[in-house]
Amino acid sequence: MSTKTNALPLLNAPEHVLSTLESDGTRRWLRPRLATGAWWNRRRITAYCLIVIFVSIPHLRIGGKPLVLLDIAARKFTLFGHTFLPTDTLLLALAIVGLLVAIVLATTLTGRVWCGWGCPQTVYMEFLFRPIDRFFEGTSGRGGKPKRIVTGALAVARYAIYVVLCMALAHTFLAYFVGTERLAQWIRTPPWQHPTAFLVMGGTTALMLFDFLIFREQMCLIACPYGRFQSVMLDRNSLIVSYDPGRGEPRRHGRRHEGDGLGDCIDCKQCVTVCPTGIDIRDGLQMECINCTQCMDACDQVMTRLGKPKGLIRYSSQEALDGKPLRLLRMRTILYPLLLTGIAVAFGAVLSTKYAFDAKVMRGTGNPFNRTADRMIVNQFRMRLSNRTNGPRQYQFRVLDPSNAVLDSDKDGRLTLDEGGSELFPISIRVPTSTFGPGGSATGQIQIIDDIGNERTLPLKLLGPR
Questions:
Q1: Among 175, 181, 238, 436, which is least packed, fewest CB within 10 Å?
Q2: Please, which residues have CB within 8 angstroms of residue 422's CB and are 6 or more apart in sequence?
Q3: Residue of 122, 113, 110, 106 lying closest to 47 (CA atoms)
Q4: Residue-wise pLDDT tens digits, 172-184
Q5: How far apart are CA 172 and CA 179, in angstroms?
Q6: How far lies 66's CA from each of 42, 82, 418, in Å?
């Protein structure tokens, strides 16, 4: 008996399923050639400046405080000398929304300029680790196909350099969360005295080794979601790295001759061999393009040798390539800056209401009020004080209104808090029965003053008999 199947024939896979994946499923390792043109020089200066800034920030101080310290364990976040506490949820929300709007605005105007110029993945991959690879492969300053196989002692030396650099980056990264003083103390003590920090450092080092040694450009192509979001953040007027088909097509191999009706592109594929993500920019706007401008430098060099104008591949927009004028003012570029300005104003307004200390009075649990034998009404409260300054502070607190009120507390009206300290403690306020009107309530005020003159006055609501 014979059986027939209606299975559809399998389609042949394209040459590269992804730019890093061959048609048979094997990994395609990218070794881009280096085009050292004007744009590359600008990116190199930018990258080295960013590396210096990244390493320097944990060591910088403003008013005795770190420039940036994200102390998650203590729930304190110091930015530009100002400490934010967990109670600053509105400021945190405004900062996050503002950052998202700024990213969308930057992408709308300049495409993926962050990916090619500022992203740590690109900065360290292209200007730190790839130069190391090229040194050991014998292609320093050129890139491309290796001149020698890195094995034996060379491989050991290369891996050792990778480990040292990743450990240095991991320690710098950890300094953003624990501070340089504590990190220096941990470095001088055995790992078993601070196992959690050691495991964080070791795990970060391992992840960086995996990323820069193995995963590499696939971080941009597969793992990073930014490229997939660009379709909703870009429009046809956004500035992108683009190939001009009107000038370059139709292509030809070899030198172009005047009057043959062909474009300026000679199909040399230099723009492809220098691409760190392995794409062909001539295929149009693609998710994998990170605006690194390497194809621009490579193409400009070819055009110069051919005696043609530069800019066959250039920063442009889809509208400009279609011969339409570039529109800088459009709905997105008007609304996003307005929204960002509103968020910045709101952030500044909320920040201006922050004091040298946080104080909050909350009603205590249990009965709304109690009577005493001498016809006094007692209201129970809880007070929380948080020191936001960079040193220990002593606080005094007293009731301003009603003037006949008596404050009782186990703190005797005084409290000392260390830097960043916070304490919740009970207080009670006694007032005569005559304080309350027919409604059975009265308003009051409590004043808190620290030892350097900062003060706050908080409202109270006292409850009593009708």
A1: 181
A2: 85, 358, 384, 385, 386, 387
A3: 122
A4: 999 999 999 989 9
A5: 10
A6: 30, 9, 17
Q: Residue 267 in contact with residue 253, Cβ under 8 Å?
A: yes
* Residue 422 CA: distances (Å) to CA of 54, 384, 388, 419: 32, 7, 9, 9
Helices then strands, counting H and E runs in the chain, come out as 15, 18
Tokens of 116: 């090619």
Is the pLDDT assigned to residue 1 strictly greater than 70?
no
The C-alpha angle 252, 258, 261, rounded to 5 degrees, equals 55
Q: How far is CA 141 from the centre of its chain?
A: 31
Please report which confidence band the pLDDT of residue 117 belongs to, taking 50, 70 and 90 as the band edges: very high
Assign 446 to helix, strand or coil.
strand
- For residues 115 and 288, what is the distance between their CA atoms, to the nearest angstrom? 10
3-state secondary structure of 105: helix
Dist. CA 56–CA 74, nearest whole Å: 23
- Please give the pLDDT value at position 241: 94
pLDDT of residue 261: 75
Strand partners, 3: none
Q: Are 239 and 110 in contact (CB under 8 A)?
A: yes
What kind and span of H or E run contains 445? strand 441-450
Structure-block tokens of residue 135: 């040194």
CA atoms of 245 and 33, how far apart (whole Å): 24
Distance CA 154, CA 160 (A): 10
Which amino acid, 175? A
Which amino acid, residue 223?
A
226 with 121: CB under 8 angstroms? no
- Provide the residue type at 49 as one letter: C
CA angle 394, 395, 396 (to 5 degrees): 135
**Please, are residues 456 and 357 in contact by the beta-carbon 8 Å criterion?**
yes
How many residues comprise the chain? 466
How far apart are the C-alpha atoms of 175 and 359, rounded to whole Å?
A: 31
Which residues are CB-neighbours of 81 under 8 A, at least 6 positions away?
Answer: 61, 62, 63, 65, 67
Residues pairing with 376 in the sheet: 432
DSSP sequence for 199-230: HHHHHHHHHHHHIIIIITTHIIIII-SHHHHH
Q: What sign results for the dihedral spanned by CA atoms 180, 181, 185, 191? A: negative
